[in-house]
Structures are given as structure tokens and as C-alpha cells.
Amino acid sequence: MSADTSMKPLNIAVLTVSDTRTLETDTSGQYLVDTLQDDGHRLAKRQLCVDDKYQMRAIVSDWIADPAIQVILVTGGTGFTDRDSTPEALAVLFDKTVDGFGELFRAISYQEIGTSTVQSRAIAGIANHTGIFCLPGSTGACKTAWQGILHSQLDSRHRPCNFVDHFSSGDGA
């Protein structure tokens, strides 16, 4: 029996957390949309939200409950300003935390921006068989996360392991 070598596209939702961006000026969210589609995945939903932990929780909770959404990418709100609240808003929704995601993101990012990477509170978790990845709001950080981690971990062909089998089937079943 041979291993399945075909790509299993995922249904991915993108949430941008920002008090200032619009769909027209959201280069980070647009990068994620373009890249996930270029990699063969499907955009399930896209939304912008002000940096308010209750609004973020409401949106992400709805997406977690939607059996057609397998992955949620959140960009923004992971810094240390008074308004940055993405980790506090979303970590409470996780059934399991992907501890290595933030650690690996900062290790890769260190090669690009040096010690400034410690100011990133990138986190990830799984809730209701939905992957949730919280990235910094800069387009460069989104590129780092996608190219350095997500591109391979969201690809069913990546070996020795990837996240795809941990997520819901995406067909509502």
C-alpha cells in the first residue's frame, strides 16, 4: 500500500485584528489569503475585527463551531501594547495548546529581526478539531510564519508528520 501523495486542501478562515486597517489596507491578511490559495487551500471566510477580546472570541468561536472551517489564521494583536489582546482572547478557547508553534516562530524570526522577536506572543492551539494560529500583525511576520511553519504543517504530504489529520474533515461531516 502506498502513501497518499495528493494534497488535501484545507478550508482556512483569516481574521485580521486591527483598530486601523481596512480590507484595502490589510496587507498581512491579504498575504495570508493569497498564499493559502496559491498553496491549494480554500479561503473559507475573511474578516477584520477591532482589538477587542470579546469580539475576537465571538468570531473565532463561531468559526470553531463551523464544521466547514478547519484552520483559523489570526493576524495582529500579539504584541505588548495596551490594546494587544489576541493571546488572552483566544487561548481560553483552545482544547490543546501547540506550545512549539510560538517557540519555533520566535526561533525562525530571530534569524530575521534578532532579539526583537521576544516581543511576539505568537501562539497556536486546537479547538473542536480546528487549528488556530495567532500571528503578529506585520506582513513580514505572516510571511515568516507561513513560509517557515504553516506551509509544510498544513500540507498533508509533509513528512514525517503534519497537522492535517488533527483537523475536522471540512465537509461538515
Concise account of the structure shown:
35% of the residues lie in helices and 19% in strands. With 173 residues, it is of the alpha/beta class. It has one domain (11-166): MoaB/Mog-like domain (Molybdenum Cofactor Biosythetic Enzyme, Chain A, 3-Layer(aba) Sandwich).
Radius of gyration, in angstroms, nearest whole number: 15 Å
Full CATH superfamily name: MoaB/Mog-like domain
What global shape is seen?
globular
How many domain modules? 1
Number of strands: 6
Please explain how this structure is put together:
The protein has one domain (11-166): Molybdenum Cofactor Biosythetic Enzyme, Chain A, CATH 3.40.980.10. The chain is built from five helices and six strands, in the order βαβαβαβαββα. The protein has helices at residues 27-38, 53-65, 86-90, 99-113, 139-153, and strands at 11-17, 42-49, 71-75, 96-97, 123-127, 130-135. It has a six-stranded mixed β-sheet with strand order 2-1-3-6-5-4, sandwiched between helices. The radius of gyration is 15 Å and the shape is globular. The two termini are 26 Å apart.
List keywords for this structure.
173 residues; alpha/beta; Molybdenum Cofactor Biosythetic Enzyme, Chain A; six-stranded mixed beta sheet; 5 helices; globular; MoaB/Mog_dom; Molybdenum cofactor biosynthesis protein B; molybdenum cofactor biosynthesis
Secondary structure elements and pairings:
Elements: E1 11-17, H1 27-38, E2 42-49, H2 53-65, E3 71-75, H3 86-90, E4 96-97, H4 99-113, E5 123-127, E6 130-135, H5 139-153
Parallel strand pairs: 1-2, 1-3, 3-6
Antiparallel strand pairs: 4-5, 5-6
